[in-house]
Amino acid sequence: MKLQQLRYLLAIVENGLNITAAADRLFTSQPGVSKQLRLLEDELGVQIFTRKGKSLDGITEAGQEIVTRAEVIMREVSNIKNIASNLRDDRSGSFSIATTHTQARYVLPSVIQKFRQRFPNVSFNVHQGTSEQIADLVAAGQVDFAIASGSGQGFPELVQLPCFEWDRVILVPGDHPLTKIKAQVSLQDLVHFPLVTYVFSKDGESSFETAFTDQGLTPDVVFTARDADVIKTYVRMGMGVGVVASMAHEQEEEELVSIDARTLFPRCLTWIGFRRDAVLRDYMFEFLQLFAPHLTPEIIRSAHAAPDQTHVERLVNNLQIPFRSRITAG
Amino acid sequence: MKLQQLRYLLAIVENGLNITAAADRLFTSQPGVSKQLRLLEDELGVQIFTRKGKSLDGITEAGQEIVTRAEVIMREVSNIKNIASNLRDDRSGSFSIATTHTQARYVLPSVIQKFRQRFPNVSFNVHQGTSEQIADLVAAGQVDFAIASGSGQGFPELVQLPCFEWDRVILVPGDHPLTKIKAQVSLQDLVHFPLVTYVFSKDGESSFETAFTDQGLTPDVVFTARDADVIKTYVRMGMGVGVVASMAHEQEEEELVSIDARTLFPRCLTWIGFRRDAVLRDYMFEFLQLFAPHLTPEIIRSAHAAPDQTHVERLVNNLQIPFRSRITAG
DNA sequence: CGCGTTTACGTCGTTCGTAACGATA
DNA sequence: TATCGTTACGAACGACGTAAACGCG
Description:
homodimer; alpha/beta; five-stranded mixed β-sheet; globular
C-alpha cells in the first residue's frame, strides 16, 4: 500500500468515480491512476468500487470503510506537513474557508486584505454555502475553517469558537410607509408588508420565523435568497421589505433606508470552526485573531486542547464576545 | 512522504533510536533505513531526532508530534488491511494480547487451545505484565487486546468489556493452623499470620488492602509477587499464608489446601479491552466469545460503535457476567 | 578496534507518460 | 462517435543491498 494509491483513491471518490477527472486534478496521467487503483485493489484482494462495464459505478461497502480510513491517513499526512512547515516558519501554504455570503461579501474582505498583506504567499480560497453546507465542508476536511451563524450543533469533531454577535436590520426604499413610523417599528408593523429575507436554515437560526410565531404572527415572506445583495435588489424593485444582517448594509445606499430591528429579533452569533484533529498553520492563528481579536493564540490553543465542545464552551464563557453592527472600515 | 518512511521512523523509535536494530526488525538493510529517515527529514525540513555525533540521541519536540501522527497513520493502514482480510475470509494473520500471569497461566490455555484449533494459521502472541502495563500496551496499539483485572479507568481510547468475576482464595500448607478453624476464616484470623499475595496495583484493585483497613486491621504482607506460582512456592516453603485468585488453584495440589475467602474480599472483575479505533479481525470476535461466551459479536459490535465507555457500560449493564471459581477443564 | 552511521555504487523493480486499443452508450 | 478505462511499452526514477569509509568511545 502506498500513500499515492490512497491519494488517488480519494481523488477518484471526490471526482464522482471518474478516473479521468481525478487524473486531471492530480496533474498526472489517467492510465497511471487507473493502474494504481487496480494495484491497490489487488493488494487488498478487495473490490473497492463496483464496475459497470469498465466504468466505475459505485463504492462497495468495504470500499466506503477503506475510503474513510484513507481520509484519516491523508489528514494526518497533512498534519505532519503542517507541523513541519510551522517549525520552519514557512510563510507559504494554502488556506481555505467556507462561509456564508454575508461574511464573504461584507465582513471578510478587510480581514483577508490584511491577511494577504502579512502572508502574500498563502493561497486563499473561499467557499460559499448555507450554514449546513459550510459545517459539512469543514467536518469533511474539505476546508480548514467554517464561518457560519446559527446553531451549528451536532459536529462533535469540530472546535467552534464564537466570533461576534450581530442584529438584523430592516431595509426599505426611501419612500416606504415604514419610514413614516415615528416610534420603534414592531413585528406587527412588519406582517402587513411582503418580506424579503434569507433562506431559512433547516433547524437552527430560524429565529427569524419564531420571532413572529412567538407573538402569534405570521410573516408574509414572498422571496428568500442566500444573498443579501439579491435581497437588496428585490427590495429596490419594491418587491417587499428586506430583513438582512446589519453588516450587509454598508452605508446609506442608493434608494435604501435601514431601520433598526435589534429589538425585534434575537441576536445572532457568528462562529468559526475547525476540526479538532487538525494541526493549524501559524498563519491560521493570525487569521483567527484578525477576524476576531479576542481569539488569541492562547485561547485557541486551549480550546483546541479541550476534549470536546462542552469544554470549549466553558473556556470561552468568560470571553467578551464583540458585537458587530456595521462593517468596520477596510 | 512514503508510508515506508513512517514505518521506518516508528521502528527506529520502538528500538530505542537504534537504526541498526530497527533495520534488523524490519528485515532490511541498515543503510536503507538510515537513508529513508534522512529523506523524510529533508522533505519535511525538520529534524525529527537530535544527534550526538552520528548516533541518534533523542526525539525533538516536533519529532514527537510527527511520531504520534505516524502512529495514527500506521494504525489506519492496518485497519484497512484488516477490513480487506475480513472480507476475503482470510483465516490467517496475527493476534497479540497482553494479560496478567494468572490469566495467562490458568485461564487462557484452554481458550487459546480451542482458538488455535479453529485458526491454526493465526500467530498468537501473549505479553505479560501488571494491569497498568497491560492497559498501556493496548492503548499504545502494541497489542490487540488487554485482559486485566481491577479498575482500568482512565483509558478513553479503549472499549472495555466485562469478562467474568472471581474471588480470592487462601492457600496454606496442609498442616497449617488455619485449617483447624471450623467456622469461616475471618480477616481477624488472617492478620495473625504473615501473608504472601500479589503485588498491589498502584490505584485500583487494592481492594485487598482496603478490605483490612476498612475493619481497622493491618495485614502483615511479607512477600508479594506478580505470579501465583511464585506465591504458591513460598507458601509451600512455609513463608506465610497465600491469598491468590481462585482460578490459580487448580485442584488440591501437593501440600496446599485452599480456604474459601469470598466473604473476606470484594469480588474482582476481569475485563478485556481494545482500542475503539481498531478494526477487529473476524477471528478476534471468535476469541472474545471463546473467552467470555456472553460477548457475542452483536454485543461487541454495538459496544464498539458506542461513542465512549459510558455508553459501553450502559450496554453491558443488562448482561449476566459469568462467575469463575476454578478453571474449567481444558 | 568495535559499534553505529553515512557515503558510494550497481542492480532491479516501480512509476509514469505516450500511444494504441477496447468497451459502452 | 464521444467518453472512459485498460493494455503496451520505453524512459526515468527510486529503493535496496553490498562494500567501504567515517566518527566516536
